[in-house]
């Protein structure tokens, strides 16, 4: 008989894998704004004695950075990230989170039970034990980044993602991030207070944070003196355009990024590192952004139905505006149901609009659409 798994030793005071520290530091570096999100989280924690709070956003909208910043500002938070290889499996999550909880709250376990990763029973038991030890107004918060990366095949069909508990004891909260998803495919059945915040619903707040990010992270040239106005910001001539901070290229950068911080950070890093030494071109993407889009494409193309998927994708690429499922089906002479199935599988990479009782779709970012037009596979 195999002996129970021993608790892994760690030099990390938080108890999570050291690679998580790296992504927390990387994602929270150069962070600005997002106060509207933190306000919503704090209000939820104050209004409810327990529950799930989920931050929803398109790829690159800043979800991971928000969570990383929250963790750095709240050292008691238990953190987990699914984007690392092997960390998107349910048993790995349970082993790690249970170990963190045991270490952080000094629970009396020398090893995990043999069946600790078989469902939510052991995690729920630990949460109940911790809840009973919490002092008045004390909370335990477990932050899980990128639920959309979880391997659904690592657990039985119909179970909650990562076996997350259906019920929570008082003082226990989960803070989650994920890309857009269909409600009927949430992967979570919970009967405890819950709230979602969709970043797309806060366009003005996002735009203000984009401007703040540019001001903080775009390396300026030495300031220029203006008579009677003191020193004025002098951005790189690659972006300066006709004026200084009011330059046409700065305005265009704000518009082109479409409130997407992955796009914005990659472009600004490329400018600061001299990638555009021969002149700035919005359609010349840095290698990091191209690799990011390549990951999208690999996830979107189903090998079993690749030709059909490419046909649907080609229609989306050619459209400047959202297009209906029926219109796509008509263009490629296909069954509307089959088209809808493909689009539902791509939901995290799309914008969906409901117009006259029909779903309309477009790719989540114009830069991604433009990049796709250059791919030889399409």
UniProtKB/TrEMBL annotation:
The alphabetical list of record keywords is: ATP-binding, Nucleotide-binding, Repeat
A GO CC term attached to the entry: Cul4-RING E3 ubiquitin ligase complex
Gene Ontology MF annotations:
ATP binding
Gene3D superfamilies xref list: P-loop containing nucleotide triphosphate hydrolases (3.40.50.300)
Q: Which domain of life is it from?
A: Bacteria
Q: Tell me yes or no: is Transit peptide among this UniProt entry's keywords.
A: no
The family database entries (Pfam families) matched by this protein are listed as: NPHP3_N
In its keyword annotation, does this UniProt entry include RNA-binding? no
Chain ranges of the Nephrocystin 3-like N-terminal domain: 50-152
Tell me which PANTHER family the record gives. DDB1- AND CUL4-ASSOCIATED FACTOR 12-RELATED (PTHR19860), WD40 REPEAT-CONTAINING PROTEIN (PTHR19860:SF40)
Task: Specify the protein name.
Answer: ATP-binding protein
Organism of provenance:
Amazonocrinis nigriterrae CENA67
């Amino acid at each position: 008989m195999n002996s129970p798994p021993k608790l892994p030793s760690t030099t990390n005071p938080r108890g999570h894998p050291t690679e998580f520290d790296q992504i927390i530091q990387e994602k929270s570096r150069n962070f600005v704004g997002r106060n509207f999100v933190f306000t919503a989280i704090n209000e939820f924690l104050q209004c409810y004695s327990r529950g799930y709070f989920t931050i929803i956003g398109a790829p690159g909208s800043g979800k991971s950075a928000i969570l990383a910043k929250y963790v750095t500002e709240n050292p008691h938070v238990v953190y987990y990230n699914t984007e690392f290889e092997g960390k998107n499996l349910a048993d790995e999550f349970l082993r790690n989170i249970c170990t963190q909880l045991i270490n952080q709250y000094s629970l009396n376990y020398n090893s995990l039970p043999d069946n600790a990763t078989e469902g939510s029973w052991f995690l729920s038991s630990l949460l109940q034990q911790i809840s009973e030890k919490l002092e008045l107004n004390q909370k335990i918060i477990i932050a899980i980044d990128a639920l959309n990366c979880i391997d659904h095949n690592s657990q039985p069909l119909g179970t909650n993602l990562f076996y997350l508990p259906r019920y929570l004891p008082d003082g226990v909260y989960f803070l989650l991030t994920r890309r857009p998803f269909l409600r009927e495919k949430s992967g979570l059945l919970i009967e405890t207070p819950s709230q979602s915040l969709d970043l797309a619903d806060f366009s003005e707040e996002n735009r203000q944070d984009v401007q703040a990010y540019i001001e903080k992270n775009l390396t300026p040239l030495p300031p220029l003196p203006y008579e009677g106005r003191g020193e004025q910001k002098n951005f790189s001539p690659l972006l300066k355009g006709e004026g200084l901070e009011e330059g046409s290229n700065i305005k265009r950068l704000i518009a082109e990024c479409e409130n997407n911080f992955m796009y914005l950070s990659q472009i600004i890093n490329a400018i600061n590192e001299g990638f555009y030494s021969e002149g700035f071109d919005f359609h010349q993407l840095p290698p990091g952004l191209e690799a990011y889009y390549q990951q999208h494409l690999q996830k979107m193309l189903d090998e079993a139905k690749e030709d059909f998927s490419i046909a649907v994708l080609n229609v989306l690429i050619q459209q400047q505006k959202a297009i209906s499922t029926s219109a796509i089906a008509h263009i490629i002479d296909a069954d509307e149901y089959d088209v809808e199935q493909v689009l539902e599988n791509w939901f995290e990479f799309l914008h969906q609009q409901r117009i006259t009782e029909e779903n309309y779709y477009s790719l989540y970012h114009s830069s991604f659409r433009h990049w796709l037009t250059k791919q030889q596979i399409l």
